[in-house]
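Predict the holo structure. Ligand: nicotinamide-adenine-dinucleotide.
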Amino acid sequence: MEHIVVTGGAGFIGSNLALTLQQRYPAARITVIDDFRSGSFKNLEGFKGDVIAGNLAEMGLGYYVDASEIDAFFHLASITDTTDHDQYRQTHDNVEGWRSILNHFAGEKAALVYASSAATYGIGGGINRIDAPLRPANVYAFTKVQLENLAARYVADFPSQQVVGVRYFNVYGPKETHKGQPASMIYHLAQQIQAGKKPRIFKYGEQKRDFVYVRDIVDGTILAATTQLEGKFDPKHGRVFNLGSGQARPFNDIIAILNTTLGTKAETEYIDCPFSFYQPHTEADLAVTTAALGYKPAFTLEAGIADYFKSGWLVPA
Ligand SMILES: NC(=O)c1ccc[n+]([C@@H]2O[C@H](COP(=O)([O-])OP(=O)(O)OC[C@H]3O[C@@H](n4cnc5c(N)ncnc54)[C@H](O)[C@@H]3O)[C@@H](O)[C@H]2O)c1
């Protein structure tokens, strides 16, 4: 990979991706595009590439990026606050940005990778198989379904070209501090414990989620490009893949692990769940992802939280 673009590169996952790519491909020219609506320049400390500030839904990508030069284009930019219910803003900014990228790269050699979400499964919980029906429960998830639909149409129109979508599950790790409320549950519970408060979770903490460490997500996202570039990608597996840990862990486990990692003895405060429906269980089925991309997550929840703590990003800012 010599020429790489990462959109959303000032954000949580995008900055981890951009900095990992810089480490793995030191000779590559890496460009970040971000409009900083939720990202932060602080995440890009040590980044030596180019940073373009722009809203992908409105900027003229052609002015900045020569599509014929790019080897890999990672599209992670998105409104990520799922409680933003402005249907026009979410759909316009998330979908139009992706449409203009696809139009710009039509017929080019670049490997395109884009971030979708486990939120596309919506109320269909349990073990999420990639072919399960998509039932988005909010407009954010709806826009991710639109990204997948657009990508499918693009590949039908330009069959020689590859584009791979990755549905991220519940990602946690360094450089999510800027997100505020939408940051991971692990981040928030760690902040509560370190502030001397009781960590608060819904009664009685048995709900399970697939929590996945950002370093695994970065590895899986890079694999989605390298399998294409190395000619190893076989579309018989599909073109959208789950990226998670492949394990569902109860909320109670997070508090136990945080207590061990932080050396605390915080007691849990169980609160009523305010939602009429709350998913009891989500879990990424990784069989197809492993077959198609060779993805195998390396971090258990214990190892991920320990590494997060070691990074210095879990302590209060
Ligand atoms: N964090 C998770 O658990 C998770 C789960 C599922 C999917 N995802 C997806 O992963 C991607 C990265 O998420 P994140 O957690 O790093 O969130 P984030 O909010 O930290 O990063 C998103 C970045 O995109 C930028 N951005 C938003 N709209 C833009 C636009 N129109 N033009 C240019 N830049 C824009 C923001 O400023 C921000 O820096 C997103 O596509 C998100 O939907 C994340």
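The chain has a mean pLDDT of 95. Residues 201 and 270 are 5 Å apart (CA to CA).
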